[in-house]
Amino acid sequence: MPARESPPELKKRAARVSRTLAKLYPNARISLDFETPWQCLAATILSAQSTDAGVNRVTPQLFKEYPDTRAMAAADPRHVEQLIVKTGFFRQKTRSLMNAAKKIVEDYGGEVPSRMEDLVTLPGIGRKTANVILGVAFDVPGFAVDTHVTRLTNRLRLVATRDPQKIEALVTKMVPPVEWTGLSLRLILHGRRVCEARRPRCEVCVMNDFCPSSTVKPGKPPAQGTLSPGAAGGGL
Known about the structure:
By secondary structure, this protein is mainly α. 54% of the residues lie in helices and 0% in strands. It folds into 2 domains: 7-28 and 143-215, Helix-hairpin-Helix base-excision DNA repair enzymes (C-terminal) (Endonuclease Iii, domain 2), CATH 1.10.1670; 37-137, Orthogonal Bundle (Endonuclease III, domain 1).
């Protein structure tokens, strides 16, 4: 059994993970389409149990008819349901959209708040969604932890827990705030493309020489088809 890493050693390896993924996915971003913080919040709510592509198909009309919080707060819920029905769980999502909009109007003057402690008070918004909104809508450092981030941080042995809040607390102590949003987005992208849940593709992973869970021995040349930075960029 390998010796347990000291905090400085773990921090150094976390930095290497961040640098490696930044080189591989220099333009990583979420693939939800939005123009304002409210649209970002709404699209993120709709993305639960749905694909980003599916959300992007319904949001143009939704945002045309309900472009801001005041419009959504006064909406006819039956019409909102009709517009978002294809994203699934449309009744629950309609309630979350309208209740979040009403609270933003009542408590924040109609403007989406830019602080974690305020965002998590909104209906339908947990820490993961709040971190996404902070990072991509306000350019405020946020480390969102979803199933991909949970899986990869454990496989990389940066953490030994599956509790999202604990993972967030641990990882954000290892890397500087300026890297939080990018690292989260890149871990998600790498989890979708390479470090898959059922079978991690270690043979093409750029971290196979230092990932503790790699099935490829250090020093072994990557298999043909290894992802290159030029081929790996793109949205989430």
